[in-house]
Amino acid sequence: MSTVFPSSTFRPTSIRCSNDRQALFNRIAPVYDNLNDLLSLGQHRIWKRMAVSWTQAKMGDRVLDVCCGSADFIPHSSLHLSLQSPKSNLPLEELAAGVIGLDFSKEQLMVASSRSFTKNCFKNIEWVEGDALDLPFADNYFDAITMGYGLRNVVDKRKAMQEILRVLKPGSNVSILDFNKSNELLTSSITEWMIDNIVVPVASVYGLSDDYRYLKRSIREFLTGKELEKLALDVGFSTARHYEIGGGLMGCLVAKN
Ligand SMILES: C[S@@+](CC[C@H](N)C(=O)[O-])C[C@H]1O[C@@H](n2cnc3c(N)ncnc32)[C@H](O)[C@@H]1O
User: Which NCBIfam families match (predicted)?
Assistant: First the structure.
């Protein structure tokens, strides 16, 4: 049986930030999920599940997915939480205090809120239209935070990390999955070759080649694993560790408040 978020809510807040990036993510929203599956050959699901498990989220936790987009991370959070339960068929509201997905793209959130899932544990989810650089939540509010392919896209990475730290409870973890900006020439060449020869041509079928060309530049301008660890420690996280996954093409920063 499929459920279309019967108890999810949609909370808009005011946003002050990069209009061009917001427009880009609004444009690609209808095909974003399909392209992810196609371009990663389904591997992104494994990487997302690994990232969620590294938060060490457990039953009863309040979880935030920053830059949730079309909510591709939320099923993995929910699945992770349900697997922590001896009765994994419990509804999510009995497993988690709440899962919130935040994004500044209204179109992505529309896709998120219309997703249907086959398990009854995807309830008690709230969608918040908001800015990762000015999170509309109280200090020390969340037990676990995930962010997938979001940090690379925000205009101020330091501010985003400071905001995550502010709303994360002491002792809790954030797990940030993204492309790995590698120092290895071979790995970075493979990434760029794949973008030029696979990602952009496939995106062009959907009329989105220009939007996906932005990917190469954003990875070049992103931080290496060591730089991400340093950024996390600089803003005040107590520990930070970057893991290379997917043959070094992806990376996941796990940091503890
Ligand atoms: C590449 S998508 C990732 C979506 C999803 N997390 C996933 O893993 O598939 C990046 C998302 O970041 C969002 N985003 C970028 N900057 C943002 C900001 N300042 N505040 C909120 N969302 C932002 C975009 O709207 C987009 O949905």
Answer: MenG_MenH_UbiE, PRK00216.1-5
All domains in the chain, ordered by first residue: 9-180+222-256 (3.40.50.150)
Tens digits of pLDDT across the chain (257 residues): 222 333 345 555 444 456 777 888 888 777 777 777 777 778 888 898 899 889 998 877 888 999 998 887 776 666 666 556 555 555 555 555 578 889 999 988 988 888 755 444 455 678 899 999 999 999 999 999 999 999 999 999 999 999 999 999 999 999 999 999 988 888 889 888 988 898 888 888 888 888 788 888 889 999 999 999 999 999 999 999 999 999 898 999 999 99
Instruction: Answer whether 177's CB lies under 8 Å from 149's CB.
Output: yes
d(Cα 162, Cα 133) in Å, to the nearest integer? 8
Is the C-beta atom of 75 inside 6 A of ligand 1? no
Ligand 1 atom with the smallest distance to the CA of 32 is: 9
Instruction: Give distance in angstroms: CA of 68 to centre of ligand 1.
Output: 6
Pocket test for ligand 1, best of 16, 52, 67 (most atoms within 8 A of CB): 67
Kindly give, in sequence order, each residue whose CB lies less than 8 Å from that of residue 144, ignoring residues fewer than 6 positions away. 55, 56, 57, 61, 62, 63, 64, 77, 172, 173, 174, 175
Pocket test for ligand 1, best of 13, 24, 25 (most atoms within 8 A of CB): 25
Closest residue to atom 17 of ligand 1, CA basis? 154
